């Protein structure tokens, strides 16, 4: 699916993959005259609760976008993510079926010359600049903590049996800590958000190769296909935001 505004073209895909019965990922975007918002979430919880949590997260962010304006973008973005957290936490207390549900969230807002990114969990945001890819977000996961402590290497982390355990999520407690990043958009050609259904099985270099090899929606389609080929057992969602050439 392609969406376009004055400066950026956005392509997205969200599929359940080959092993899950339902798709607990949820993606969305919104555009205004001088800004673009991308958001991706990966839900967790039994009895379809993950599907509900991720949808609440994305829809809450999108409904708040009109209030996110300079010069306090970071502050307003944190407020929006915390609001989503509160909505999910409240919903989880209404039924035993929803108890303990949660979701990751990764948000990117492009305003004028800057890109603002918020992250909770292990969904990721990458940017491509000068034909090189950089991972902007840092996973809130058990494996990342083990890598940071030196207990395991990054290569060992890719095949660690606990790589799906996250240490921070929306909806699992009344409050949540939100990571915020601000980067200059100069020379950035692509922004890519994805859930761990892709990032757990593809290297940064493999993702970059696909970004460089295909146009628009074909990037999302080929990341999905490649993730399946590499054995992904999860839902797979990708948003690509590409600057006008």
UniProtKB/TrEMBL annotation:
Family annotation (PROSITE patterns): PPM_2
PPM-type phosphatase domain residues: 9-243
Source organism superkingdom: Bacteria
UniProt cross-references to InterPro entries, sorted A to Z: PP2C (IPR015655), PPM-type-like_dom_sf (IPR036457), PPM-type_phosphatase-like_dom (IPR001932)
Leader sequence segment: none
Pfam families: PP2C_2 (PF13672)
Gene Ontology MF terms: protein serine/threonine phosphatase activity
Protein name: Protein phosphatase
Source organism of the structure: Clostridium grantii DSM 8605
Taxonomic placement: Bacteria, Bacillati, Bacillota, Clostridia, Eubacteriales
